Amino acid sequence: MVGPAVVNQMRAKLAAGEVVTAFMVTMPSVAMAQVLAASGVDCLIIDMEHGPIDLTTVHAMVAATQDTQATPIVRIPWTEHWLAKPVLDTGAMGINFPMISTPEMARAAVAALRYPPEGVRGSAPSYAALRWGLSPPEYIKRANREILNVITIEDPDAVRNLDAILVVPGIDAVAIASFDLSMSLGVPGQFDHPDVRALVAEAEAKVLRSGIPMGGVALTPEAARAKRAAGYRMLLVGFDVQMVDGAARAAVASAQG
């Protein structure tokens, strides 16, 4: 017997033209996932690319989002179907693919998320149907259309190839990684550098022209307003490490007067 069926609320909000929020979670902590998921955020991106998070912990962190409005998405280390497959079987509702720089990589990302004949995802008894509140046959029917595909643009080649990437069917959101773009140009963190501004502006224009929801980092109210005004609809509003570090330092400073 399965529990009540869930819907991919983030997908529904993006389809309705709404702006969604996300936290990046790099700590291998079920408790952190539980706390952040209960905050009212639309999405947790569980980061296996840069965080020390293994598959067992991913499974527990995905489960910790149950009964909240937070959609569990997992950022995997690279665009390989064998990396996405076990993560999807934990019940994750989306995959964030890093470093997408060619149409071929974009097509591989789409295929990794979908069961045949639309893709290459393998099928086996897993925890995914339980997390979604569906029977296994019902899960297989819905998975291909419900799982979110978020790709990240991180280097100049990706921006140059972006028009060709964005016509690949099955991309649900495009995250523009401004810091990584600045790194790739040799000016890390210099977001006002003319080359960075030009590259980001080119990426934004191409994504907006495609009509696919665009994502980016917005860590302050001012940044969030600016991103919304620029057409962003997926806002990364916090990183767990930075939030905990900032709160801890502020608490110590406050106690010290």
Please characterize this protein's 3D structure:
There is one protein chain. The chain is of the alpha/beta class. The protein has one domain (9-255): TIM Barrel (Alpha-Beta Barrel), CATH 3.20.20. It is 46% helix and 16% strand. It has 13 helices and eight strands. It has helices at residues 9-15, 30-37, 55-63, 81-89, 103-113, 128-132, 136-146, 156-160, 162-166, 178-184, 194-210, 221-229, 240-255; strands at 20-25, 43-47, 71-75, 94-97, 148-153, 173-176, 214-217, 234-239. Strands 1-2-3-4-5-6-7-8 form an eight-stranded parallel barrel, surrounded by eight helices. Helix 2 links the parallel strand 1 and strand 2 (43-47). Helix 4 packs parallel to helix 5 (103-113). The chain is globular. The model has no long low-confidence stretch (mean pLDDT 96).
Tally of distinct domains: 1
CATH topology type: TIM Barrel
Strand order of the largest sheet: 1-2-3-4-5-6-7-8
- Report Rg: 18 Å
What is the residue-averaged pLDDT?
96
Topology, number of strands? 8
